[in-house]
Amino acid sequence: MTTYSKRVEELLGKAGADEGDIVKVELKTGKTYEGLLMPRTGFGNKDCLILKLKNGYNIGILMDKIKSIEVIKKAEKRKATPSTKSRKKTGSRKLKKVSILHTGGTIASRVDYETGGVKALFTPEDLIDLFPEIENYAEISSRLIANALSENLRFEHYNIMIDAIVEEIKKGTDGIILTHGTDTMAYTASALAFAFENLPVPIILVGAQRSSDRPSSDAAINLIAAVQFITGTDFCDVGICMHATTSDDFCHILPACKTRKMHTSARYAFQAINSLPYAKVWPKEEKIEFLRDDYRRRSDVKDKLIVRKFNPAVKVGVLKAHPNMLPEEIMVFKGFDGLVIEGTGLGHIGIESFDEHSKENERVREALQEVINSGAVVVMTSQCLHGRVNMNVYSTGRKLVEMGVLGNLTDMLPEVAFIKLAWLLSNYPKERVKELWYENLRGEISHRTLQ
Amino acid sequence: MTTYSKRVEELLGKAGADEGDIVKVELKTGKTYEGLLMPRTGFGNKDCLILKLKNGYNIGILMDKIKSIEVIKKAEKRKATPSTKSRKKTGSRKLKKVSILHTGGTIASRVDYETGGVKALFTPEDLIDLFPEIENYAEISSRLIANALSENLRFEHYNIMIDAIVEEIKKGTDGIILTHGTDTMAYTASALAFAFENLPVPIILVGAQRSSDRPSSDAAINLIAAVQFITGTDFCDVGICMHATTSDDFCHILPACKTRKMHTSARYAFQAINSLPYAKVWPKEEKIEFLRDDYRRRSDVKDKLIVRKFNPAVKVGVLKAHPNMLPEEIMVFKGFDGLVIEGTGLGHIGIESFDEHSKENERVREALQEVINSGAVVVMTSQCLHGRVNMNVYSTGRKLVEMGVLGNLTDMLPEVAFIKLAWLLSNYPKERVKELWYENLRGEISHRTLQ
Hints:
The structure is a homodimer.
Chain A: H1 6-15, E1 22-27, E2 32-37, E3 48-53, E4 58-62, E5 66-73, E6 96-102, E7 109-111, E8 118-120, H2 124-130, E9 138-144, H3 155-170, E10 175-179, H4 185-195, E11 196-197, E12 203-206, H5 219-232, E13 238-243, E14 251-255, E15 259-261, E16 270-272, E17 279-282, E18 287-290, E19 306-307, E20 316-320, H6 327-331, E21 338-343, H7 360-373, E22 377-382, H8 395-403, H9 414-427, H10 430-436
Helix pairs in contact in A: 4-9
């Protein structure tokens, strides 16, 4: 997908230069640049040639400043049109089909050199053009289903993703990659995990902590690792493929319902909590090592796919417990369908008075009881993140259980609990929701471990 | 403090057995137990002798079942009355004065063998009696200022703690240990850090993840390490002393404003985030190793102590961002003095619509603007916990800054942000609060690091 201006195209044509070639550009000032000729990606000045320099940085050179262009090395592997199998370097082996569904986010964004901010501007084709290597491993098809910064996604968008995935499955895909902003990627991963029962193909969510046109971007390694993992293993579940370290070595395949973004900016931000990654993938070495044996395999696929979507009208809130809670902070959830409490410690919130200065805790307890009585399903998780809720140990916990707060002895992440509760309330009557809360449906609850 | 019944005292007197001795108890059934004769701790049946067995467990033996008691080994070090310097094993060196202020929690609790739960039942003297070793290192005074499960503590209780600490300082203490439940210990640590300017003595918060009478309790090692650290170093700040590993080896001294409880039950639950522990303390080896050089020392104490307390009427809320936010979840904070948002990623919340399914995000933005316009100081933190808020990178963040959300480029933990905001609003006018938000007052903000 070339979108250079006609003038630039003519200049490139004269030099015999194609995108992907290594070229040397001499400016009228005498200065020269050597780098990979990049495709234009649909934004900015079309008279501006884009080179990826050896140091990894992209630069733009205005056509009018260019004196000459010389091809140093022709591109080896591919032209910019996607999805043609003939270019496969490893021979005649039939490639698996991998569908990439784009939803926006940093992986599909670039630095805006005007504002210094990041813009979500890549098209699906642009993204494949940036990482042509992925077509060595699979027959790639790619489409845009949303172009969102992931913090803006809502339940409706989960349903759009679910529909798109079902469509790809019907078309006969061997696996799905969903590119996604990292802010709420873990929420979406669990949403997709719950949505599909008897999933026939793997779904791997991929994001990037650095935008794709930055030399430090982890977009390429994450995407390539995901393609290798889908095509090279029998894994058949929902996972997240993200960079595991600060260097360019390997990615983790992380469990959809046990993963959390644990750093605002680092490349190793995604961590399995109360769990382990499924596997390590070294994309350069094309090496995959499983860290667990308890994953769902393609051979486990027996029954027909069942899809259960989200009801956008379901109202689920999140309440983070903190000292000095005020009753109104809880009362707002009266009439909600569900509420996830992120409690302190083993799963507590200050609901007991022990002296004349803690009487307000009784108002907090009354408010919570009123929310429960209004019909909200209220569940407990812990802001400690690691470890299990245990409301048997202290009087606060026992009182909460008595009041009707669910979640005792579970170890669900608060984010996963939010998604599970919204999904259960979208699909089951409340009495069934309360039973299913304690069932490990998609790996969201670990088996009871001894302390 | 002996509270055995007169009958038991007579029996012990006949055998020449004192608390602290190793005794062999023969039952009328012929069964024998050997163990350390423990003091009674003010609850339960006073006719019941308490032995600490070699395996670490305490057992109670009813007087009427006992046939004979034989002293195997006399106690070496001490009798049960606290605070007498003559017993100091290391000779005539004058011991430093350490004040222990008890506020309840697991460290001051025991397993209730009737219900299986944990009860907060120890008195301050009981606790010292359980860990007599601490009197080898300091002249200990000890008093109860609250008996709370820490999830029930409110701003008023911070003020009670502050007053008690000031009183101990006036009495000439060399350092303060505050025993505390672990649920909100990190919140309290930062509350005390903010409350005191020019602190003249160290304050170390100590808790336990396992109740003190359990063989696996970390209460002893945490408490002894805190006493050693206060008496053995020039540290003069607020810190947390908690077990660092799963085995009985060493404790960490953690920074008051950079620490979080990161496990519901493990002994190594307390972790420094975006920071490092100040030191390691090996209580058995009486060894201390500093991991940082940037701590406040006793030699830094120059100016007069300034105390700023909490205003219990200040209303500060916490809002954890999640997908599918509803405007009413935000509107509840209208009229609050402050609001801490725990955003996604670099500090975001879904306030932008990008298609027809995300229109509700605009309502969320309007609600947030209304809260800000009502006068609430709204600050951003990240649910990633690690890393820095950066609202310059994406349009969502830039919009939030424009709307008046504070916190850009800070790396405050959400819990510390909650305490700092409540404390600032208790002591300063709002315009000054907004300036001080960006100032590193007590180590709550790390210096800017390059990514």
